[in-house]
Amino acid sequence: MNTFDAVVQRELEDLRRADLLRARTEIASAQGARIQIGGREFLNFSSNDYLGLAGDPRLNAAAAAALQRWGVGAGASRLICGTQSPHAELERKLAAFKRKESALVFSSGYAANVGTIPALVGKGDLIICDKLNHASIIDAARLSGATLRVYPHGNLKRLRALLEGSGRFRRRLVITETVFSMDGDFAPLREIVELKDRFGAWLMVDEAHATGIFGAHRRGAAELFGVEDRIEVTMGTLSKALGAAGGFVCGSRVLIEALVNRARSFLYSTAPPAAVCAAAAAALAVVQSEPQRVQRLLENARRLRQGISNLELEIPEGCSPIVPVLLGESARALEVSRRLGEEGIFAPAIRPPTVPRGRARVRLSVSAVHTEEEIARLITVLPKAVATGQDMA
Ligand SMILES: *Cc1c(COP(=O)(O)O)cnc(C)c1O
């Protein structure tokens, strides 16, 4: 082994010893309730494909048609080589869906956050984040050069105190996920909106896990809480409930023009393929025309949560399809995940730094296309897997 590899290898060994080493599992099928791994079928409780659209024939057909017409590659950044119509069309549809003036598509949700936040705040400004905000928000906050302050998860008193002490900053931007990706609970959005308004701060919400699911029209948690018109910056993903790939930001025309000019992940990155935009647009149509799909999802989430609550396992409160089983140490989460795998269930161990230390978990996520029997199977197998994990902890 050369010196370079030896140095890097030592770091990997450290990760392994701390039960924090990650590896890729090769999957031989599309995403769905059932997936193929190593020649075997698994029940899939791992993905964010909440509505089962990632392999939906209508999305596939929209992508295939766009692929034929527009080609695979987008050519360059849109400011260099122009915007292909599927991108513009998707942005018009996103803005209409979210009832905003304008929208901008990024090649990923990560890129949307990393581009947007530094475009709006910088040195001399203040960003206030929930402790559990996604890594892309934290990375963006650091990149922006603004001062970053963090309040304990959902703690309005601490948020208020941070806002009270924020007078010396030029701009103040509060950022929160609306449904938290690893805990599956809601941010207290109504109260956050009240607070940021009272102190004249701005609010950016990350609706990655709420877009396409919550609210009467499935626009997201901001619709559910009735505060859509009071939020300055709304971010969402096309990669989760919408089953495609990419991220977007929507809001006022001025906001989007600012991002077109200043969001570096938009300016300096090749546009996502037109085919992906066409698939996302098809997904939006499904979300708008098939409310029963979301009803099935929420019914499945209820079913899973109900089944788990009877097992006396620790899960955070909520109604979202994200159901984390809190296990403590990483080794235990890994063991429980492995045991579930032996029973034909694919559910990942989530470990630091994705979650705080001592809060490792198996994150179960249910979808609209899981059957009652598949969920029942998970609930049957779970106690045994957790009990085994306990022996070794
Ligand atoms: C997944 C996720 C992102 C990133 O979205 P991608 O499309 O996967 O890059 C951003 N924010 C939150 C809260 C997420 O869960």
Condensed summary:
With 393 residues, the chain is of the alpha/beta class. It is built from 15 helices and 13 strands.
Report on the architecture of this protein.
The protein has 393 residues and is of the alpha/beta class. The protein has helices at 3-17, 57-70, 78-81, 85-98, 109-120, 135-144, 156-164, 189-198, 221-224, 253-262, 264-267, 274-289, 291-309, 330-342, 372-392; strands spanning 34-37, 40-44, 102-106, 126-130, 147-151, 172-177, 202-206, 233-237, 247-251, 322-328, 345-346, 349-350, 360-365. It has a seven-stranded mixed sheet, with helices on both faces. Strands 1-2-11 form a three-stranded mixed sheet. Bound molecules: pyridoxal-5'-phosphate.
Q: Count of DSSP E strands?
A: 13
- Backbone shape: globular
The biggest sheet amounts to: 7 strands, mixed
Q: Percentage of helical residues?
A: 40-55%
The secondary-structure element order is HEEHHHEHEHEHEHEHEEHHHHEHEEEH
Biggest sheet, strands in spatial order?
A: 3-9-8-7-6-4-5
Q: Please, how many helices?
A: 15
